[in-house]
């Protein structure tokens, strides 16, 4: 029901950037190779995400807007072995309950696609449409029926920077996906999808930054760590330039970021932070992503072992005189 979805939306959909994150993650889960994100007025006016992924079969489209209707996990066991980015089945019903949503989608080989339109949680229309494979979803008038939340949004500059941040992190974790982000018709980010992380970093932070980054790698029995990191001498003074990915998912984890910083030792100037994209692979049973609705925070069962490993790998790398 609409009220339950609006309550869930309070947890999942905080701002336009949350909508962008959920929609782009859905496109990635649908195996899209190209994802275009078109934003108007920092997402407050509209957010459109076009993908060339699997699409949704016409008899499944309305179902995708039902609460906890996920096609991605089917039992309790799966919940602890999550491979897809989404799994809670909350995003589409939540978004549809607090905005105006039009989704057009078609699967491969279908003779026609499906268009569905919700506004404030109410189904306005469902009809046939073009058979272009993939999904094209537009979210307009976010929070039109929850004015308190609309009021809580920050300036357009801030909201846009949060959207850009979401796209940056997703492009790091998915270098094989070609992303395009435009704001009010102006291109903000473009990646090629050729799988080269350094080129993605160049697209995000600039060619000069990316050129100066070095590769790190290391592992123990439980964890495999790879990444690209800036040289200690060439760092920026902002913690947000550290991105940590666990099993392909961007996460926020203070102890892991701290381990990375500690690994730089005294060569890192006080108050300065490295640019780093660190990717950690582990048995999914060692990480619980079902802690927070936005799935940013995770619980690690061997956190201390991992922080020790990260610090060691970084220290060894930068201890070498010849970088
Ligand atoms: P979740 O991602 O947690 O499964 P969502 O509410 O985000 O839940 O999406 C519900 C369902 O709609 C998904 O499980 C998927 O089957 C379908 N879906 C949503 N977006 C797309 C998309 N871009 N391409 C294909 N299927 C999609
Ligand atoms: Mg989802």
How would you describe the overall organization of this protein?
Belongs to the DNA mismatch repair MutL/HexB family. It comes from Weissella soli. This is DNA mismatch repair protein MutL. The mean pLDDT is 91. Helix content is 32%, strand content 27%. The protein folds into two domains: 2-190, Histidine kinase-like ATPase, C-terminal domain (Heat Shock Protein 90); 212-319, Ribosomal Protein S5, domain 2. It has ten helices and 15 strands. With 323 residues, it is of the alpha+beta class. It has an eight-stranded mixed sheet, covered by helices on one side. It has a five-stranded mixed sheet with strand order 9-10-13-11-12. A two-stranded antiparallel ribbon has the order 14-15. Helix 1 packs across helix 4 (91-97), helix 2 (16-29) runs parallel beside helix 6 and helix 9 runs parallel beside helix 10 (303-319). The protein binds adenosine-5'-diphosphate and magnesium ion.
Task: Label this structure with key terms.
eight-stranded mixed beta sheet; single chain; Heat Shock Protein 90; binds magnesium ion; binds adenosine-5'-diphosphate; alpha+beta; DNA mismatch repair protein MutL; Ribosomal Protein S5, domain 2; globular; 10 helices; 323 residues
